[in-house]
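[09:14] KT: can someone run the structure on this one? pasting the chain below
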Amino acid sequence: MSSIGRFIPLFEGQFAAYCEVEHAVATNNGTSALHLALLGMGVGPGDEVIVPTLTFVATANAVTYCGARPVFVDSEPRTMNLDAAQLEAAITSRTKGILAVHLYGHPADMDAIAEVAERHGLFVIEDAAEAHGALYKGRKVGGLADAGTFSFFGNKIITTGEGGMVTLRDAGRTERIRLLRGQGMQQDRRYWFPVVGYNYRMTNIQAALGLAQLEQIAQYTAHHRQVAGWYTEELAPVAGALQLPVEAPWARHAYWLYTVVLGGDVAVERDAVMGGLAAVGIETRPVFYPMHVMEPYYEGRGRYPVAERLSERGLSLPTHVGMKREDVVYVAAKLRRLCGL
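[09:31] RB: done, structure tokens below
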């Protein structure tokens, strides 16, 4: 069977060890991992889960899958992550937990988030889909909260083509998540289903790919950081006009993407810059739209000004593992020219 084989538990065990946790559950994608992590925390109809408005839509959607409501908070302007100072104002009697995203590879401020969560009796889940190998105060992301989730989509730092992982410390929650992952089938009673579950299993072939990728994760993360360093060297002279990625003193950025934000002195629109780069063969991507401007979650504009500015003025530059120094020099020069810098 495609979802049974020795590589699945091997990949789970080695990835758990990499994240310095006791348990890991492999899934068919990162969104499934988020959904299962939330279910493992007991999230259900009527609950609220706090998420950053600036994130990929899967973060909010996974909360909605549980019948719960995502409650949004604005971004911290430098790291682009959830602003922990705004958590208190978002908590209500229905709040069940906090879903912290390590956006584009920079860890969220987990101690500040955990302090608020502990005071209010809330769980914390890390959405580490974009942050393989990132560190928070010397500790790997994915092992900093009640659970962590990862994506192994084709564009991530390590990939299984599609795939995901939930990392945990609690054995009981792990078994609950394993039950839900495999259609709810009881492990010691074949074809007996005590609960309604999901077909969220990773295949054995994907797990084999994941093991091979995990063997190279140190090289991949080092190269992403090297590419980011080259960009910073090339763009440092115009850092006043472009907001470059930061690395907090307590963090090691994974630099899944190198994201810059056009400052107020740059008169050209972000989309025009992206179009100009595309015309010379440079693929870029815009910063995510905030969740609160999307139709399913629409709240109107103006309530989350930092996230809106970052979304409207930010773009991510190529960082793939095949990039060389001359590629970065070329991209940076074209970017500067298009921005008039």
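[09:33] KT: thanks! The CA atoms of residues 261 and 314 lie 4 Å apart.
[09:34] RB: yep, looked fine to me
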